[in-house]
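Protocol step 4 of 6: structure prediction from sequence.
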Amino acid sequence: MSFKKKIIPFVFSIFIFPDIDWNFSQPSGIFVEKGRVYVADSGNSIIKVFSPSGKLVLEIEGIEEDKFECPHDVLVDSSSDIYISDTWNNRVCVFDKKGRWKKTIGGFGEGCGRFNKPHSISIDTDDSLYVVDSGNGIIQKFAKDGSFVMELGREVGLKFPSGIAIDNETIYVSDSYNNRIVKFNKEGKFIGSIDNIDNPRGIVVSSGILYIAETGGGRILKLIDKKIIPFIKNLNMPYDIAFDKEFLWITEAGKNRLLKFDIDGIFKEEWKGRGSGLSRLNLPYDISVSNDCDIYIADCGNNRILWLDQSFKPKGVWNVDAPISIFVDNRKDVYCINSIEKQIIKFDKKGNEVCRWQENLVDPKDLFVTEKGVFVVDSSKEWVFRFSNDGKFIGTICSGLKEACGIAIDSLGYIIVSDCDGIKRFSRMGILVKKMDGFSSPSGVTVDKDDNIYVVDKEDNEIIKLSFYGKILDKIKAKFSFPQSIAIDKEGCAYIVDTGNHRIVKIDFSDRVYEREPIEIEIKPTKTNFPDFVVDEIIIDEPRKGVWTKISSKIRNCGDKQVDFVSVSMYEDSKRIGLTKIIKTIPPKATEIISTIWYPEKEGICTIRVVVDQEDMIREENEDNNIGEKEVFVW
């Protein structure tokens, strides 16, 4: 069954739980201006702009299709233009206040105006731009129009400089790998350093005081009267600092959040995606949807299974250490993997533990449950483990796996496994029948009621929908961050576990329309009593056991004479498919298409043959009348 998308406008219906905007991944640079908070969300490769209350008001992802790659800093000049250091693309991009691109400065290289992994940026009172060119170990200055002015710092041996701040007379640079802050005057002359700071990164000057994000020490320092004083402690990789009139803002990359303090260092607020309440998630890893559309989430970071109704309202919580996989069967029994103890745990529908087991498991990653048992993939083993529904070991199946991490079983009993080689389909007996590749890092896999396959590619941050035969139907991106798994409900809605953003994204596929793309089959020539007749192609919509499908053959008269009363039959091995078709006349060089309906009764390989005769009466089949054949695999 092969498909292609119709070229029609379409907008997916998307629902997000929890619906918050503070999902950061290694936030780095921060800038506050006129009440707005600008954040370089490096891990998600996006710039986010928030109102003072935390409402997302603008996102900048790049220049049209030319997306950012790990942007590290952001600032706003006196004209409200937004400057972004697009680190891995080795450039600084300038946008207007509405996020429309205006110009680009730089590009990869070592010369003037070229960058190697630029990190922090700053502007002075003249709107001159300073770029911390980390890979080249220098600072570069540009005029307002983007023209190169000068470089500084080369003579002092900077090692991965990463932060910069400017007051009236002094330029401060965090020389990260030399564990110091280096000072220059406005002409770029070295005038001193502040030593013994553990991996300094972001720095800022406010009211004449220098504040330093000491990333290695996990704290914020301030310089008063040439003395370093600890200001805020117990942070996890603080990366950058910004001030507004009332508050100090910190990006805490180690915990993927923003912190807000008053000017005295008193904590006020945090903005983060993860949480422990019933309406928040912390590193969710897997999801399962029951037949009555209840939702079960393996909330790994909160050490629990979260049970929700179809409106995402909480119904219950079960404690499990770091669950990474979950499955709900037809009885609403719940099976999950405890990643700490490497165990399978089974609960009844009320949340009471029924049993748990660990036999033969080393590093279980995912499970799928049918009436025939519990099927488990273990990344350290090259096969699938099979247990009874009460945990008794039955055996192994589906050999040849490499770091398997996802498993699903379709309505026909085929076992679909994701591993580092791609997606593999096995028969009920565990025989490999198809391999689908082309994925960067497939993780979760599932199937819908039509046996379409859904694959989560966590490295490319996308969901790929495949037909039963492995043809790509859709590729969906919704600003995911390391998505891990997916589930499909009975209505055709997909639930994606967006792990890095600590949320579930629900996408409605039910209105998506596809056109069928027939399979064209290469023809094997045969000896025949009718050498002037050839079969150009055999076309089959769906060679699938127990499903009526259309089968067509294209017959061509290659000879120079008209042939009358030609009968054409198609056979599945020795069994005739449909009725014999009578063609009264086939002119020389002409082509006829013969179609019928086929009902494959067995799966596996069969031979489709096209047989002709020159009478309108059906005779015994004669192999010498076979003008073309092809082996077909029936699913």
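Step 5 (inspection) to follow. Residues 37 and 50 are 5 Å apart (CA to CA).
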